[in-house]
Amino acid sequence: MATQKKDIEYITLKPLPDSVILDIISHYLKDYVLTEDFKKDIVNLCHGNPYYATEVSILIKNTFPPAMELRDLPYTIRLKEITEAIIDTIPKKYLNGLYILSLINDEIEHHIFSKLLSEPVEFLNYCFNRGLLYSKDSKLYFNSDTLRRCISARLTKKPDRRFICGLQMY
Fold first, then answer.
1. Potential cystine with 144: which of 13, 44, 98, 167 (Cβ 3.0-4.6 Å)?
2. What is the pTM of this model?
3. What is the mean pLDDT of residues 18-29?
4. Is the Cβ–Cβ distance between 45 and 83 less than 8 Å?
5. Roughly what angle, to the nearest 10 degrees, separates helices 77-88 and 145-155?
6. Checking DSSP bridges between strand 69-70 and strand 108-109, what pairing results, if any?
7. How far apart are CA 24 and CA 74, in angstroms?
8. Is the pLDDT of residue 74 over 80?
């Protein structure tokens, strides 16, 4: 029996531009007032994924009355689920750095944070390219407080008491 070699074609998916994500959200939420802070938060949350933009829009329509001014993303179970799904796509080696940042809460300078990671340049490139973090005045910030809260919440789930601050305890 002869086997045929099949050509496999790979398709690389890239995030949609912020303007397209905002168009999707604006379409679904045309009866709402969207503040600039809200638009920034929702774009950062969606990471260019039209599915996330649609899901967040449906969540808002089902939660808040029309004509309401939306200032902040509502931190509800469904939004948390979407954010958790985003976090689940982040490789573990980058999650560890995000865990550290979530503990700091507000901000940390690049040079201090870089000393805490084995590959800080690779970590920062990943996080900046995915829209997870941004830098301002040499300090790092989460793009979304919802993302920071979900990452931080993972640290309190079923802790392994043998590991405290990176030290193995027996």
1. 44
2. 0.53
3. 93
4. yes
5. 80
6. unpaired
7. 18
8. no
Q: Are 155 and 103 in contact (CB under 8 A)?
A: yes
List, for residues 116-159, the tens digit of each pLDDT value. Answer: 788 888 998 888 887 788 888 888 888 777 788 889 888 876 54
Domains, the chain, ranges and CATH? 18-74 (no CATH), 90-157 (1.10.10.10)
Which residues lie below 8 Å from residue 101, measured CB to CB, with a gap of 6+? 108, 113, 133, 140, 142, 148, 151
pLDDT in tens, 78-88: 667 777 877 88
| Burial of 26 (C-beta count, 10 Å sphere; 0-12/13-18/19+) | middle
Pull the structure tokens for residue 109. 């300078």
